[in-house]
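Hey L., structure's done. Input below.
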Amino acid sequence: MNPVALMERLESAFTKAGGTVITELATAVAHDRDRVTGVTLANGEGISAGQVVLAAGARTQALLDTLPVGPRIPKLVSGYGVSALVKTVDGTSPRSVIRTPNRSFACGLHVLPRSQGEVYLGATNVISSAPRDIAEMRDLVFLLQCAHRQVRRNLWDSHVAKVQVGNRPVSVDGFPLLGAGGMDGLWIMTGTYRDGLHLSPLLAQEMTARILGEAPRTALASFTPVRPPLQAWSRERIVEDVVHHTIAIGYEQDWKLPVEWHGWIENDLRPATLSWAEEIDPEFTPPPELLFLSRHIPDLAKILREYYAASREEAGAPAR
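Output:
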């Protein structure tokens, strides 16, 4: 499915149903004490509303930062990714989607047929403390090399028609933020990581039911935005996942090492990763991608430490 075409059709259906599209960006959520009253636009104008739904993907955090919700809601970071539209040198396209397994903390390599002679190559995934708008050279080179080495050799002779950058919304505990946002009239629908597009029909219906006071059909209480940190796996399982995907980075980068060295590297990575997890927090462990990259991104480590400390304080436990 072409998501660009889908969004165009959704916008068309929305306007035909009487909706109004405002192209100006929202920069803040207006509020009066504990009730939201609308949004403020980049041009300074305001839009009044009794109910406000924040569904701005990874950029939702910038709007939440304008509200006094504090540490009760897990912060959002970005799963920054690069993709490309490529015109094949021989004018052909695959008859189906080609996709490799998830690996290297990313969503695998996928090649999708678009128009005849054009394919979509995607996509990288790098956790970033804030959304990005411009592709890094190394990510683009990595993506194109993977397509050439793993899918089809003559893609190397093809033409890159467009480079695209996207930001997946990732909460720091790895789970969606769905439901009431801790202030009267505030609703949040984001943090879906790679699954937002596919889940959007269901989530839109569920959010509408909740706003209108109707009985919802799907149990989403676990993902209420105002919550303590969620953790699906044990610390040991998360550390193993980090080691597994870290080693996969080497394989995908076509590294050349003596056979025994792979095991030696794993043996060194395991205690180092466990030690780092304990430095972040003695109890809570972030998802594998965040644990891995927080060693290299000080801002991300700071976000995690502050979030866990504030969550513990909110629960009445002493900060450690």
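The chain has a mean pLDDT of 94. The chain has eight helices and twelve strands.

-- N.
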